[in-house]
């Protein structure tokens, strides 16, 4: 086959140069926007460094001088903090009696080292209640990048690849563009030029799509930035996107690398770091700990991702799916509770280029046929999984809220187990792998790696030995270790004495042995309920501050009483009777309200899978039997993207079953901390805290009957 004509080559070169120019323009605009954001970030970082060093006592200088520094003279001279030493001139320090040139040099070098450490590890926190000019300038600068959306990552990567390849191919193909150049070029050079022209023609087959992607991103970057007020509004709506971008720009290393990597053994952590992670089909950047989580799932193949709620387990799962499909996988399946089905569909569509199918509802059979024929990611519910037989082309199986299948005898657990046997890559996701007993955790591990925990339920070495044994299959990171930008979380127990009507209802429930009636007795007579009166006060305070509130209860009757007591329109209640689509509509409507709003939710429904970071006040109407129910509920508000301090109010009654439930919850939480969360070694015995189900109810009813009978002279409950 001969070489192309000079006219054809000139046409190719014109198109290639135009595309190359577009790509270079996008890269230049991106670099300019990043530079502006970094310039706006610098004053805030310096302010934060100064604040931390100003709160750091001068004695900390000894930590970086191996204790050799004698700082007493500095302290006596008024240098009380590391900042005061850092900002002093050499002349000022050397004037201090007892401070010579060597001590002065050691002190200043130590202060500089601490300042570098603070700068490198400190993440900037944006306070929505302190809208100063410097922070506003930063948000305006960041908004240019955030506004482009998830396509910016792909557009910039494409532009870089266009520049890398076209700049070489254009130069190589140029000898074919005129008869004179052909005449002056040797046969070897002409051969290379012909090959380059062929490659150019192949690349330009997708010229229209590539130019459109790059041009749209460039146009978005060139739009005028919003004013300060609009930038703050956008930040509150998309705080997680802003903080993800800040983490990239700051290049801040986690304060505790081991914690960010789940305290895995070093040899395993090293293998995980070496695992490739293809982002071709992904439309979102990952934080460092999220990329590590995705790599862990890919490297180990069959794992439990047990990250604290609110750390982005869904994003990590999507990164795994995007990698596998980019590397040749054709089909994947996600199973989740019905309550989060819509959220999964939205996240996959918005965060990746993967085709997603909803295998739920009236069109599920048609969706299944399309998924099997075309490939992509199918999302179904636990109930829907029973009707799906494993198919060999499925390369990845994601199980969300995997603690739902901790009981191996349950129907849904058997359906999940059947799929696990036929799929190579399996990802269990749960922030609460263990609620009552260690056996629950072990059941999940056995589903993925049969035989890994052969032997006694509690391996030799107790909690620490157990964590070491499950390291190949279990990764967990906690909020306090990796989300340094989260605002404060304030827990407050609100103790309210029974009113006379409350006490009568409670005694009646105890006498009848009605455990659930005892739990909701404080709301039996709403117009005389002490807890409801306190709840109204808390909601009124939130309304005065323009804050959103989510109110949780286990009982629909209690939520109905709360709705009646508040009077004003409320959203919800979210309960198990709502379809997934309707649940999401309620949450969206609540989140869209400007200022104060109240959402009512059953804790077992509203505590799983929903993002409620629009709320910054959480009210728990009664303590729960499982601590995981409360922690899940709180984590729906206190999660990545939260910009306000979150206040959690738990309504309690003294001298009632509430006190016993708190003690039981603390025992269960201690078990979880020992075995499933990285913590100090605890020697808890799992069997000692098995207080679930009927045994729990019987125990509390019996104790309350004895206590109330002892309080009456005649031994009666009346």
Describe the protein's topology.
Layout: H1 6-54, H2 72-76, H3 82-87, H4 90-94, H5 101-121, H6 133-148, H7 151-173, H8 179-184, H9 187-203, H10 207-222, H11 228-237, H12 239-250, H13 257-260, H14 266-274, H15 288-300, E1 302-305, H16 313-326, E2 331-336, H17 341-351, E3 356-358, H18 364-374, E4 376-381, H19 382-385, E5 394-400, H20 411-420, E6 425-429, H21 438-448, H22 462-470, E7 474-475, H23 479-482, E8 489-495, H24 500-511, H25 515-519, H26 530-544, E9 548-553, H27 556-566, E10 571-574, H28 580-592, E11 597-602, H29 603-606, E12 617-620, H30 627-635, E13 646-652, H31 657-675, H32 693-711
Helix pairs in contact: 1-5, 1-6, 1-7, 1-10, 6-10, 6-11, 6-12, 7-9, 7-10, 11-12, 14-15, 15-16, 26-27
Describe this structure in words.
Strands 3-4-2-5-6-1-7 form a seven-stranded parallel β-sheet, with helices on both faces. Helix 30 links the parallel strand 12 (617-620) and strand 13. It is of the alpha/beta class. It folds into four domains: 6-37 and 136-236, no CATH class; 52-125, 5' to 3' exonuclease, C-terminal subdomain (DNA polymerase, domain 1), CATH 1.10.150; 257-481, Tandem AAA-ATPase domain (Rossmann fold, 3-Layer(aba) Sandwich); 486-711, 3-Layer(aba) Sandwich (Rossmann fold), CATH 3.40.50. It is 55% helix and 9% strand. The protein contains 32 helices and 13 strands. Residues 294-451 form the Helicase ATP-binding domain.
């Amino acid at each position: 086959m001969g070489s192309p004509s000079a006219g054809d080559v000139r046409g190719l070169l014109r198109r290639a140069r135009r595309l190359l120019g577009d790509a270079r323009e996008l890269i230049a605009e991106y670099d300019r926007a990043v530079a502006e954001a970094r310039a706006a970030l610098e004053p805030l970082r310096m302010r934060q460094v100064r604040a931390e060093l100003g709160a750091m006592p001068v004695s900390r200088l000894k930590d970086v001088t191996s204790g050799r520094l004698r700082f007493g003279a500095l302290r006596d001279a008024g240098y009380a903090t590391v900042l005061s030493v850092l900002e002093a001139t050499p002349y000022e320090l050397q004037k201090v009696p007892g401070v010579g040139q060597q001590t002065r040099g050691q002190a200043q070098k130590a202060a500089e080292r601490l300042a570098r450490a603070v700068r490198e590890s400190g993440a900037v926190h944006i306070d929505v209640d302190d809208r100063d000019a410097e922070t506003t300038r930063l948000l305006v600068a960041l908004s240019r990048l955030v506004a482009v959306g998830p396509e910016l990552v792909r557009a910039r990567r494409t532009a870089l690849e266009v520049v890398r390849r076209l700049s070489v191919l254009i130069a190589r193909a140029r000898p074919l563009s005129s008869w004179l150049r052909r005449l002056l070029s040797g046969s070897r050079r002409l051969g290379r030029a012909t090959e380059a022209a062929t490659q150019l023609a192949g690349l330009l087959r997708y010229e229209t799509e590539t130019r459109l992607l790059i041009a749209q991103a460039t146009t978005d970057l060139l739009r005028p930035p919003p004013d300060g007020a609009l930038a703050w509004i956008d930040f509150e709506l998309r705080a997680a996107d802003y903080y993800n971008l800040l983490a990239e720009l700051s290049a801040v290393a986690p304060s505790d690398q081991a914690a960010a990597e789940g305290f895995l053994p070093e040899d395993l952590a090293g293998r995980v770091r070496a695992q490739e992670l293809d982002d071709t089909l992904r439309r979102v950047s990952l934080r460092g700990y999220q990329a590590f989580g995705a790599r862990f799932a890919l490297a180990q193949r069959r794992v439990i991702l047990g990250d604290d709620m609110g750390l982005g387990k869904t994003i990590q799962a999507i990164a795994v799916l995007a990698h596998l499909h980019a590397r040749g996988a054709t089909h994947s399946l996600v199973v989740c509770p019905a309550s989060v089905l819509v959220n999964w569909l939205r996240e996959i569509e918005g965060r990746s280029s993967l085709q997603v199918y909803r295998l739920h509802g009236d069109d599920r059979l048609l969706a299944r046929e399309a998924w099997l024929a075309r490939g992509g990611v199918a999302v179904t519910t636990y109930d829907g999984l029973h009707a799906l037989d494993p198919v060999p082309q499925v390369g990845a199986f994601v199980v969300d809220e995997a603690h739902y299948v901790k009981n191996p005898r349950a129907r849904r657990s058997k359906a999940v187990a059947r799929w696990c046997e036929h799929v190579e890559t399996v990802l269990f996701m749960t922030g609460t792998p263990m609620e009552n007993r260690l056996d629950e955790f072990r059941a999940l591990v056995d589903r993925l790696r049969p035989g890994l925990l052969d032997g006694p339920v509690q391996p030799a070495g107790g909690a620490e030995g157990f964590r070491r044994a499950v390291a190949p299959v279990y990764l967990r990171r906690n909020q306090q270790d990796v989300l340094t930008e989260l605002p404060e979380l304030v827990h407050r127990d609100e103790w309210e004495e029974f009113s006379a009507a409350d006490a009568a209802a409670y005694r009646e429930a105890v006498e009848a042995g009605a455990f659930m009636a005892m739990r909701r007795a404080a709301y039996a007579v709403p117009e005389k309920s002490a807890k409801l009166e306190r709840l109204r006060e808390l909601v009124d305070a939130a309304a005065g501050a323009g804050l959103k509130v989510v109110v949780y209860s286990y009982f629909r009757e209690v939520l109905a009483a709360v709705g009646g007591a508040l009077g004003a329109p409320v959203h919800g209640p979210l309960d198990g009777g709502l379809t997934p689509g309707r649940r999401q509509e309620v949450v969206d409507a609540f989140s869209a309200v400007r200022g104060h709003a109240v959402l009512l939710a059953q804790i077992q429904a509203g505590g799983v899978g929903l993002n409620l970071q629009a709320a910054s006040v959480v009210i728990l109407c009664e303590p729960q039997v499982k601590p995981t129910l409360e922690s899940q509920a709180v984590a729906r508000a206190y999660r990545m993207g939260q910009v306000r301090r979150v206040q959690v109010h738990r309504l309690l009654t003294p001298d009632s079953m509430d006190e016993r439930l708190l003690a039981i919850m603390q025992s269960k939480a201690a078990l979880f901390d020992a075995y499933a969360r990285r913590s100090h070694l605890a020697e808890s015995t799992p069997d000692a805290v098995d207080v679930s189900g009927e045994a729990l109810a019987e125990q509390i009813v019996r104790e309350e009957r004895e206590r109330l009978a002892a309080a009456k002279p005649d031994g009666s409950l009346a």
